[in-house]
Amino acid sequence: MPTPASKKLPETFEVELATLVDAAPDSASWIHEIKLDGYRLVARVERGRHADVKLFTRNGIDWSERVPTLRAALAELPVKSAALDGELCSMKPDGVSSFQDLQNALSAGREGALIYFAFDLLWLDGEDLRPLPLLERKARLAEVLKGQKRNVRYSDHVVGDGPAFFARAGELKLEGIISKRAESVYKAGRTKDWLKVKCIARQEFVIGGYTPPGGSRTHLGALLVGVREGKGLRYAGKVGTGFSQASLRELHAALKPLERDTPPFENPPKGAPVRGAKWVEPTLVAEVAFTEFTSDGLLRHPSFQGLREDKPAKAVIRERPKK
Fold this sequence. Notes:
The chain is α+β, with helices and mostly antiparallel strands and about 325 residues long. Helix content is about 15%, strand content about 35%. The chain has helices spanning about 70-75, 100-105, 135-145, 160-170, 245-255, and strands at about 15-20, 30-35, 40-45, 50-55, 80-90, 115-125, 125-130, 150-155, 160, 175-180, 190-200, 200-210, 225-230, 230-240, 260, 280, 285-290, 290-295, 300, 305-310. The strands form four sheets. Strands 12, 13, 14, 15, 16, 17 and 20 form a seven-stranded antiparallel β-sheet that branches. Strand 13 and strand 14 form a beta hairpin. The protein starts with 15 loop residues before the first strand and ends in a 15-residue tail after the last strand. Mean pLDDT is about 90; it is low at about 1-5.
């Protein structure tokens, strides 16, 4: 039988995902972290003659070549082999992460300014840590990251006091918090050992079309978005704010080749608001902030945050809090 130290580092890891709920648990058996607004990445480090570092999105897309500065920093970790779970973020001066700034940095080739916040350690030097309690994994992670470069940081937490932590996150205008069972093992897929509580409503939507620009705006007017319901795509509204001139140009360039003659929605919008709309194949995913859904399932006050490359369109459904 092989010893734990002889185990081979897996090529990929299926990540654990949080379940959306209305309120943070109020128990000392839970820990709470800030919900970061970035790209989820698993970092895989394996050392032979040289350190081999790869980074994968939550759906297994290889992002290694997109973040060379981060790869170089992870190559300096004092490990033989390791797998870290974390979030790649762009941080504003006030300490709040920004998905839009992250998109801009990646588009402009400024990935060196981004920060990788590691919040879990799945593997270390031949040992699979996923069966260990969360707090033990985080303690091992903190030790590994001690004294490392500024663009690789440990994502800290508080124990207990979930409602108070959530209230403070709201005061700071953060997106929300992630609550985790302190003694839970690491499980692939969406679980109730990890919970997310949002201060600001936002989620992914599938782009099914766009309207022509008006006034001084160029490239496009608004995105027409929807969510999956069963096997179909249900229209959820128009997103007409949150764009920069650069994002309008990039969106139009990405959408133009996807144009089709008919709307992809089961309940396509009609009338003057969508006159002249261009319909597209529903393959691109947008992150959208909004205040709420109306009673008929449409977005109220939506604002575009950026394109998501780490989630397939077929997986985008309307998020509803679990009881």
